[in-house]
């Protein structure tokens, strides 16, 4: 049975795509069968893996076409991007059209989960790169998962997004997916030379460490900085890279947590609330496809 993990944050530019790409590669190196899903219309993950969004869209092999019921999941998956890398269910700008259709139909966010059930035995891990915000596509991605992994930079606005993201997860768990939980927090683009970032990292661990797994931060390096897109990732190109080592360790820890129901404390919401005052700072689509 595949373990489905959505990587999310309400804020953009926090390293979600980099985390999905490198964590997916790290899990492959641990011997797992991995599928990466690009749930962002910007298609950065799709491009990073070496696929061309416009070609996938022309062939009707994107997440948008799956959600629209135009193409089955197994037909849309691209598995020949590299000999030993993860498979991909890519994205394109067509996701914007699907978002509009999902809003118009006001459908429950369970569509993607139903489609993924058809390939449940084909992969050990499915990682979903969520777009910023709380779109219908992102809600579908979260409901398809049993765990949500939070990627955050060590900036006040990004860390603040953890609280609103948890509220979204709780709402979806109550209404659609009772086993949905936060898996943990991955601090990204950490520059230990900056005292302000070290202070926020300590604060992050103090505020959330009792309830969630706060993974070791991903160091800022030339290869890992920013949202630069490359057809290769640090884990695939250099085991000596500090960022690659960090993601390999996160993959190991996630393997250890597999099957655990204790990755999030039941009183997390109350803990967040008490800590807050301390903070200083479709058919319709088929016709257009």
Offer a concise description of the structure.
The protein has 289 residues and is α/β, with parallel strands linked by helices.
Walkthrough of the structure:
Strand 6 (about 180-190), helix 10 (about 195-210) and strand 7 form a beta-alpha-beta unit. Helix content is about 45%, strand content about 15%. The longest helix has 20 residues, at about 155-175. The protein has a single domain (about 5-285), classed as Rossmann fold, CATH 3.40.50.300. Helix 1 packs across helix 12. The chain is built from 14 helices and 7 strands. It is globular, with a radius of gyration of 18 Å. It is α/β, with parallel strands linked by helices and about 290 residues long.
Give the topology, please.
Blueprint: E1 3-8, H1 16-29, E2 34-39, H2 44-48, H3 53-58, H4 63-67, H5 73-76, E3 87-89, H6 94-105, H7 111-116, E4 125-130, H8 136-144, E5 147-153, H9 156-175, E6 181-188, H10 195-208, E7 213-214, H11 234-237, H12 242-257, H13 268-276, H14 283-286
Parallel strand pairs: 1-4, 1-5, 2-3, 2-4, 5-6, 6-7
Helix pairs in contact: 1-12
Question: What are the defining features of this structure?
Answer:
about 290 residues, alpha/beta, 14 helices
